Amino acid sequence: MKKKHEHIIQSVRPGSIAEELGIEPGDILLEIDGQVIEDIFDYQFYVESEELLVVIRKANGEEWELEIEKDVDEDLGIDFGKGLMDEYHSCHNKCIFCFIDQMPPGMRDTLYFKDDDSRLSFLQGNYVTLTNMKDEDADRIIRYKLAPINVSVHTMNPELRCEMLHNRFAGEALDKIRRFYEGEIEMNGQIVLCKGVNDGAELERSIKELSDYLPYMQSLSVVPVGLTKFRDGLYPLKPFEKEDAKEVLEIIHKWQKICYEKHGTHFVQASDEWYLLAEEPFPPEENYDGYIQLENGVGMIPLLESEFDQCLADELEDGTDGFDQDMDSEAIDGFESIKTQNENLNESEVDLREIDRSETVENKSLDEPETENKTYRRVVSIATGKSAAGLMRRLAAKFMKQHPDIKVIVYQIRNDFFGEMITVSGLLTGTDLKAQLTGQELGDMLLLSSNVLRMGEEVFLDDVTLTELENALQVPIHIVKSDGQCLYDGMLGNV
Q: Would you say residue 2 lies in a domain?
């Protein structure tokens, strides 16, 4: 027997169909057209009808049957509080690379919750293993034409997948990819690559077999496993080295060429970490196929740099020459003086591509060579992880060359909280930021990437709040979205 679902109505929008029919907060939705409503996907599917029968239970226990006529795309005006209208499904796997298993003890319980809920793939873009998905769930996805679904594949070898996920059904779950392909459901795939496990020949096999599902398997990202210092008792994974990264890129570039010649798409993409680790240049923009895997860290660095460069180019084209047109004459005179001092700077002196990659925060100064008694209209600081530090240094140098009256200081933050092998800015904590930035020159404002905060909250992973960090460092903090325009505006002070 199918589980009975009852959904408490949290609010009713004014002027809506629901309000006109006397539906009130606290009422309970029981059925639509005789169908039990499991979650938001059932609800949205069944309300998209011109005629429907809705069963509501009132607070006094009375059940109302409401016959409704409306436009197909017209909503009832009911809100349920929970976006999913159901509890999240927890993960049944014990993956050898699971990041949550590598979390330090003593953090909030919610941070240890492992979800593997396919519905969150559509709502939030989560990647799911499909091991939690029943046949009827797959049927519903195909029936409702829900897409795209993001799949954590990791390997197309069924036996190896069972070993990697520590789930005896993990190999069988791969069959759902075939079902979605036959149902014409768009998918995106992800492979978390583990050294000596699913790389090399296994990676080639996975790319080849997944490419057979084109065009509905529309993209595949390959990302390196993230390893924290909290791995006692876990599978003995090793970090990738420079030569390993080169081998991974060689395989990916080979299959990009094959897929492009055959299908007109590069299909498989390497996350930015591979290029940084291999010390190889990023591919041209057209190789990213519209940045379909951007949220997986594929192309974020080259896209950010391209957007930032465009902001600088647009500024020159507009004739602003790097200063605010509303500045008073004294300020402009000061700007021109600074500009004159820097006109003869050689570009190589501020192009920081070759700057030392040391992880210490002391190597923070990324502006042009110091000029004695130099003054600035604005000083702004940026804190980032090791992976993005080189990029931030290049952008800071370009910006200051065009804006010699603004000083930008970039701080590379070492991840002591999770361990030095974690180099992405998204896993920086308030604890590390506070410890390494205290006493440093932070200027008028500190810029942080939005991915350092938990989604929808002003809180870092270690529960330090943004306000607490601001108070500790005694500097305003501006959260910057991961695009070039926002970063440019942050440096300029247009926030």
A: no
Q: Can you tell me the distance from the alpha carbon of 290 to that of 186, in angstroms, rounded to the nearest whole number?
A: 16
Question: What are the C-alpha distances in Å from 100 to residues 132, 193, 226?
Answer: 18, 17, 11
One domain for residues 405 and 428: yes
φ and ψ of 217, to 5 deg: -80, 95
The more confident residue out of 46 and 397 is 397
Phi, psi dihedral angles at 189 (to 5 degrees): -115, 160
DSSP 285: G
Per the domain annotation, does 94 fall within a domain? no
On whether both 110 and 41 belong to a single domain, the answer is no
> How far is the C-alpha of 385 from the C-alpha of 119, rounded, in Å?
32
CA dist 191 and 274 (Å) reads 13
Distance, CA of 211 to chain centre: 24
pLDDT (mean) for 394-414: 96
What is the Cα–Cα distance from 379 to 376, expressed in whole angstroms? 7
Residue 32 has pLDDT above 50, yes or no: yes
- Whole domain around residue 287: which residue ranges? 100-297
pLDDT(356) > 60: no
Structure-block tokens of residue 23: 């539906």
Quickly tell me which residue has 């939690």 as its tokens: 132
Phi-psi region of 366 (alpha: psi -120 to 50; beta: other; left: phi over 0): alpha
Tokens linked to 14: 């004014």
The two tokens of residue 395 are 């952008």
pTM of the model: 0.80
Please report, rounded to a whole number, the percentage of residues in the chain having pLDDT higher than 70: 86
Q: What per-residue confidence (pLDDT) applies to 343? A: 37
Nearest to 396 by CA among 386, 385, 387, 383: 383
**At 28, which helix (H) or strand (E)?**
strand 28-32
Residue 44: pLDDT band by 50, 70, 90 thresholds?
Answer: confident
Q: Average the pLDDT over 327-338 and give the result.
A: 40
Note whether 215 and 175 are within 8 A (CB): no
- CB atoms near residue 326 (< 10 Å): 6
Q: What is the CATH number of the domain that holds 33?
A: 2.30.42.10
What six digits make up the tokens of 177?
């990819």
Tell me how far apart the alpha carbons of residues 126 and 119 are, in angstroms, rounded to a whole number: 9
Q: Can you tell me the distance from the alpha carbon of 370 to that of 376, in angstroms, rounded to the nearest whole number?
A: 12
